[in-house]
Specification:
CATH architecture: Alpha-Beta Barrel
Distance between the termini: 12 Å
Number of helices: 11
Number of domains: 1
CATH class: Alpha Beta
Largest sheet: 8 strands, parallel, barrel
Order of helices and strands: EEEEEHEHHHEHEHEEHEHEHEHH
Strand order of the largest sheet: 1-6-7-8-9-11-12-13
Radius of gyration: 17 Å
């Protein structure tokens, strides 16, 4: 099972996501005793050196917020290049991508944005439901960037799809995941914002249903992981991977457990 370390970027800082309330996210201060002080590069180094994580998931929250906030005067490109304590988001992403395969969620909703993400060093461009306008756009992104380099982020809040821009009336997460797989994405990431950082546990039953609806896709879970038992449950439900952050920050997962999990199959 793949374990992917999460870094949420806001204003050039690595912040600790909790419950999807982005305005209240505070910088990551320390991880199991190591001082981070909001430094995303220090967090990435900790993930690699202390926990053996070989992949990173980075959410550019400035870009996402700019894309979904009505009347926002901050364009996502400006957000990416804004000066910040540890460099611009462009500089940070370049540095992160130099040492680790990088999954990037940065309000990607059209082919030029996907290609730009890959040019910035991402190995996988994530097209999140929250900023997607149509499945036709998703299909075009897959053709342009290559389906193996595109993931669909099924953004949920308490199990309900977060799709303010999408041109569909569907509110069924299973249907949305299946449609994404049908248009060509190689990976589906189910991310419940309400569970992020809340230590409530992942929705194992939902993951099993998404697995059944997307048999050919790589399936990754995000939000709510508390400890190893949750990860084993996700693997049993058919998940190929999971996003991890809070459980590591709070010492609920250790390197030995995570190494053992890497040998667990996500096939039910």
């Amino acid at each position: 099972m793949r374990l992917i370390g999460v870094i949420d970027l806001a204003g050039g800082l690595a912040v600790h996501a909790r419950g999807g309330d982005r305005a209240r996210y505070a910088p990551v201060r320390n991880v199991v005793g190591r001082e981070i002080h909001g430094n995303p590069l220090a967090l990435a180094q900790t993930y690699r050196e202390q926990f053996g994580l070989t992949e990173l998931y980075v959410a550019d929250l400035d870009a996402i917020t700019a894309a979904v906030t009505p009347g926002s005067d901050v364009h996502q490109d400006a957000a990416a290049g804004r000066s910040a304590p540890h460099g611009s988001h462009d500089d940070i992403l370049t540095s992160l991508a130099a040492g680790t395969p990088l999954w990037l969620d940065a309000a990607i909703a059209a082919p030029p944005q996907a290609l730009r993400a890959l040019e910035r060093g991402a190995t996988c461009a994530i097209v999140g439901l929250e900023t997607l306008r149509s499945f036709d756009d998703l299909a075009t992104i897959c053709v342009t960037a290559g389906p193996e380099r595109v993931a669909f982020g099924l953004d949920l809040r308490g199990g309900v799809p977060v799709a303010p821009r999408l041109d569909t009336s569907s509110s069924d997460p299973i249907n949305l995941a299946a449609r994404a797989a049908d248009v060509g994405v190689s990976t589906v990431i189910v991310l419940d914002l309400a569970r992020v950082g809340a230590a409530t546990g992942p929705d194992i039953r939902l993951m099993a249903r998404v697995r059944a609806a997307t048999p050919g896709a790589t399936l990754v879970a995000g939000g709510g992981v508390r400890a190893i038992d949750d990860l084993i449950g996700l693997a049993d439900a058919g998940c190929d991977g999971a996003l991890v952050a809070t459980a590591i920050h709070h010492g609920k997962l250790n390197a030995e457990e995570m190494h053992r999990l890497s040998h667990i199959s996500g096939n039910p």
